[in-house]
Design a protein that fits this description.
By secondary structure, this protein is an alpha/beta fold. It contains six helices and six strands. The two termini are 31 Å apart.
């Protein structure tokens, strides 16, 4: 299985000036854990995750004053649609993160999360179990 099979193609894209509250509201409305931050003037493509927002709140920062730019991870590891899910999972484990932005021709086309990978692996295991059960002679 490949990243393109697991990734979410509905990507929330925000700008660096969005407040953390605005980002959290958009992420909550879409039931997603990360937003792609496009900052064409500075760092290019970054990611803001629920953990970034949580860390800011835990530090007592005001979500109406803090911006995505301040809390965006800009040293992002990007995945390609043709990466295997094993490759994506390995990158996540090595980097200690739960989301990868998927780029195709330098453009964000999706986000893949640990949950997406587990969902695909689980479905594949269920299919394999069902096929084995069907193959057992009665």
């Amino acid at each position: 299985m490949h990243v393109k099979d697991a990734m979410s193609t509905v990507v929330l894209t925000i700008g660096p000036a969005h407040t953390l509250r605005q980002a959290a509201q958009l992420m909550a409305a879409r039931r997603i854990g990360a937003a792609v931050v496009l900052d064409n003037d500075n760092s290019g493509i970054g990611i803001l995750t629920e953990r970034d927002i949580l860390n800011s709140l835990g530090a007592g920062e005001n979500p109406d004053r803090e911006t995505a730019q301040t809390h965006t991870t800009s040293d992002v590891v990007f995945a390609a649609p043709d990466w295997t899910l094993d490759d994506a999972a390995d990158a996540m484990v090595r980097g200690g993160f739960r989301h990868l932005i998927v780029l195709d021709d330098h453009e964000p086309v999706g986000v893949v999360s640990v949950r997406d990978i587990i969902r695909c692996w689980s479905a594949a295991t269920e299919r394999a179990d069902a096929e084995r059960a069907d193959a057992v002679p009665a």
